[in-house]
TrEMBL record:
It is a multi-pass membrane protein. It comes from the Eukaryota. SUPFAM superfamilies: MFS general substrate transporter. Its main location: membrane. Keywords: Membrane, Transmembrane, Transmembrane helix, Transport. It comes from Staphylotrichum tortipilum. Pfam families: MFS_1. One of its GO terms (molecular function) is transmembrane transporter activity. This is General substrate transporter. The keyword Lipid biosynthesis does not apply. The lineage of its organism: Eukaryota, Fungi, Dikarya, Ascomycota, Pezizomycotina.
Length: 492
């Protein structure tokens, strides 16, 4: 490694940090840091271990905590709390009201105080909330704690989506998003088995088995929140102690390569007008609608799959808890494979359409075939297609926006619509439609078809805009201060 290159890297770190917020041209080009390709890979692997695996593990717990109602319901919660009529649907969906409302301010807070503090604190608090769910006496108390859980978890997923998008270039983020969400799928895969094991604690300390599901998982959440304070990292431009896992030159190299990719490594000074102006871009709402369609299906599966396996397919309670795992394990394979292909071939829209086609094929099989075994095969296709589209949609929107405050607004809007999809997913499989649940199946088919239509329209739109940019007729994607990146093109 050339000593002159080392000197340039070390002497200009602080100057380049300050220049990132304004003139991009003053930053040191990433290739001028003197790192060999192997050294660059080692740096990114360190980032992956500290960032992707940590937020993935925390999201694993988050997803488990918000979707364990189905397991608890068939473990006796429905009987103990008198969940008659629409009460189960109410406590399922009421979580999403504060979850949606509190997401936009959360992306502002996380930028101000840093993800390390923000994510660790809310994880610790919602773990305590989960423990409280194990001691409720009636369904109203459970509904109240679900509201509190929604407030606390509102800041988690959009902050993670935002954080991941700031660390990686546009064609690295697909695999990372897939691994991040894949860890969550592992949680979904084994949450049923864990819940079945915890059910066996029924009678211990005079508590029913479903209560132990909440108590033990709440304790796990609090422990992970405490660990997260030391394991999480901040934004790549931050000057905090979480940078101790990278040296000064390594830090600046990460910032420079992201800046070279899209020119927005640091945010402009915050103002409400700049933040909200992103809402004038119709593409932001198109990405959000894709995520709404996707999460309608994923949450419907998360909340009702154990119930469908029991009532519709005739499996026992224990078998239903365990049979949830294999479809989610298969979804993890599809998720990583499509994320890898999307990054390698620089594709986003076709990946989303491929996953949607799996859902379109699987939903009629799951709902209408005469054989329970074949219907269970349909569950594999639906679970894989729907869940693989979560990181695919995350990468689609992350690739096609510029500017940190627009990225923050888009992440909040994107995940808020995912919360609305959670409300829809809580309602589509109604108790009065048991055991066939045909209206719910039709709703899932409709939302999946709408995703394919939106992606098709966006693809044609992006091709036209990119063509105009290639001919020098326009520039694409300004940031909050109306700065353009000349080489930026949409990914479709």
């Amino acid at each position: 490694m050339a000593s002159s290159q080392e000197k340039v890297g070390f002497e200009n770190v602080e100057a380049a940090d300050s220049d990132h917020a304004g003139s991009k041209g003053a930053a040191i080009p990433a290739e001028d840091f003197g790192f060999t390709p192997e050294e660059q890979k080692k740096i990114m692997r360190r980032v992956d271990r500290r960032l992707v695996l940590t937020v993935g593990a925390m999201y694993c717990i988050s997803l488990m905590d918000r979707t364990n109602l189905g397991a608890a319901n068939i473990a006796g919660m429905g009987k103990d709390l008198l969940l008659i009529g629409d009460r189960y649907s109410i406590i399922s969906l009421i979580f999403f009201v504060p979850y949606i409302i509190f997401q936009p301010p959360s992306t502002i807070i996380v930028r101000k105080i840093g993800p390390r503090i923000h994510l660790a604190i809310i994880t610790l608090f919602w773990g305590a909330c989960m423990i409280g769910m194990g001691f409720v006496k009636n369904w109203e108390q459970m509904a109240g704690l679900r509201v509190l859980l929604g407030v606390l978890e509102a800041g988690f997923f959009p902050s993670c989506v935002y954080l991941l998008s700031t660390w990686y270039t546009r064609y690295e983020v697909g695999k990372r998003n897939s691994v991040f969400y894949l860890v969550g799928c592992v949680a979904s895969a084994f949450a049923g088995i864990l819940a079945y094991g915890l059910m066996q604690m029924a009678g211990l300390a005079g508590l029913n088995g479903w209560r132990w599901i909440f108590i033990i998982e709440g304790i796990m959440t609090m422990l992970l929140g405490i660990a997260g304070y030391w394991l999480l990292v901040d934004f790549p431009d931050a000057k905090r102690e979480s940078w101790s896992f990278l040296g000064a030159r390594e830090k600046e190299w990460v910032c420079s390569r992201v800046d070279a990719d899209r020119g927005d490594v640091k945010p402009q000074p915050f103002s409400v007008a700049k933040y909200l102006r992103a809402g004038l871009d119709i593409k932001v709402w198109a990405y959000a609608m894709i995520f709404f369609n996707t999460t309608t299906v994923t949450y419907a599966l998360a909340y009702f799959l154990p119930i469908i396996l029991t009532q519709n397919m005739g499996f026992s309670v224990g078998a239903s808890q365990c049979l949830v795992a294999p479809p989610y394990a298969f979804a993890g394979i599809i998720m990583y494979a499509t994320g890898w292909a999307g990054d390698k071939y620089r594709l986003r829209g076709p990946i989303i359409v491929f996953n949607a086609l799996m859902c379109i094929i699987g939903l009629p099989i799951m709902g209408f075939h005469s054989s329970p075994a074949v219907r269970y095969f349909g569950v594999f296709l639906v679970t894989a297609g729907a869940n693989a589209n979560v990181p695919a949609a995350m990468s689609y929107q992350a690739n096609n926006i510029r500017g940190q405050w627009k990225r923050a607004f888009c992440s909040a809007t994107f995940v808020s619509f995912g919360g609305i999809g959670g409300i829809a997913g809580s309602l589509v499989f109604r108790s009065q439609d048991a055991p066939a649940y045909k209206p719910g199946l039709y709703a899932c088919i409709a939302t999946t078809l709408l995703t394919m239509i939106i992606v098709g329209v966006m693809t044609l739109y992006f091709r036209r805009l990119n063509g105009q940019a290639d001919r020098g007729e326009r520039e694409l994607e300004c940031d909050a201060d109306d700065n353009y990146e000349p080489g930026f093109r949409y990914t479709y």
